[in-house]
UniProtKB/TrEMBL annotation:
Gene3D superfamilies: 1.20.1050.10, Glutaredoxin. SUPFAM superfamilies: GST C-terminal domain-like (SSF47616), Thioredoxin-like (SSF52833). It catalyses: RX + glutathione = an S-substituted glutathione + a halide anion + H(+). This is glutathione transferase. May be involved in the conjugation of reduced glutathione to a wide number of exogenous and endogenous hydrophobic electrophiles and have a detoxification role against certain herbicides. It comes from Mycena sanguinolenta. Residues 2-83 form the GST N-terminal domain. Its EC number is 2.5.1.18. Residues 90-218 form the GST C-terminal domain. It is an enzyme of class 2 (transferase). Belongs to the GST superfamily. Phi family.
Length: 218
């Protein structure tokens, strides 16, 4: 049975990194559209797959997994003999990848969330933006990017000179910044700008951004 990938149609959040992993690893799948407007993700059938009632979820021949990063890791390991090498095999390389992935989850993402909340989602919903809150959030996020500038001055990607799962995790929410006309990813410093432009030009991302989560084979 072909792998089922459950998500909404909006290209953003955990669904994006699962879609990117499917594309990078050249894994055939079926996209099952979850109608969030109709609260399909809160039905008993869906809650049986993810008790938190969130997307994305995968069903790999009866093996059901939620939490996007866990899904990606499962897929990368299962299909390690094909597609991109996203989880380095050497102990030291793997540990540096884990370090960078932990930084994304524990530092980058928590600093980015308040910026998105105030500077992207509020204007998107036509709610008033509190400029002081946004400025503070941008200051915090900017400080994290200053550290990224140093890290990315030492190597091409966040965990070394190869694109890895740690880089891939950054696609979940940071591309949404431009929806709020926040161009911080390409105005902080030359190294962050170079890295971000490279991520934004990656063919799998360009295709998903243009076409969404298409049903069928990649
Ligand atoms: N940590 C989870 C986050 C999942 C999540 O927050 N999903 C959002 C979409 S990006 C969702 O399902 N929202 C619907 C809701 O909150 O009702 C993951 O990475 O899979």
């Amino acid at each position: 049975m072909v792998l089922k990938f459950y998500s909404g149609s909006f290209v953003g959040g955990g669904g994006v990194i699962v879609a990117l992993t499917l594309a990078e690893m050249k894994i055939p799948f079926e996209h099952v559209f979850v109608d969030m407007e109709a609260k399909e993700h809160k039905t008993p059938e869906y809650l049986a797959m993810n008790p938190f009632g969130l997307v994305p979820v995968i069903d790999d021949d009866g093996f059901v997994v939620y939490e996007s990063r866990a899904i990606c890791r499962y897929l990368i390991e299962k299909y390690s003999n094909q597609g991109s090498n996203l989880l380095p095999k050497g102990l030291k390389e793997r540990t540096l990848m884990e370090q960078a992935a932990a930084v994304e989850y524990a530092t980058f993402h928590p600093a980015l969330t308040p910026v998105l909340r105030e500077g992207v989602f509020k204007p998107f919903r036509k709610l008033p933006v509190d400029q002081a809150v946004l400025d503070e959030a941008l200051k915090e996020f900017s400080a994290k990017l200053d550290v990224y500038e140093v890290i990315l001055g030492k190597h091409k990607f966040v965990a070394g000179d190869e694109f890895t799962f740690a880089d891939l995790c950054h696609y979940a929410y940071a591309p949404l910044l431009t929806m709020g006309e926040i161009n911080i990813m390409t105005s902080k410093g030359p190294n962050v700008t170079r890295w971000w432009n490279e991520l934004m030009a990656r063919p799998t991302w360009v295709k998903i951004k243009a076409e969404g989560y298409k049903k069928g084979l990649q």
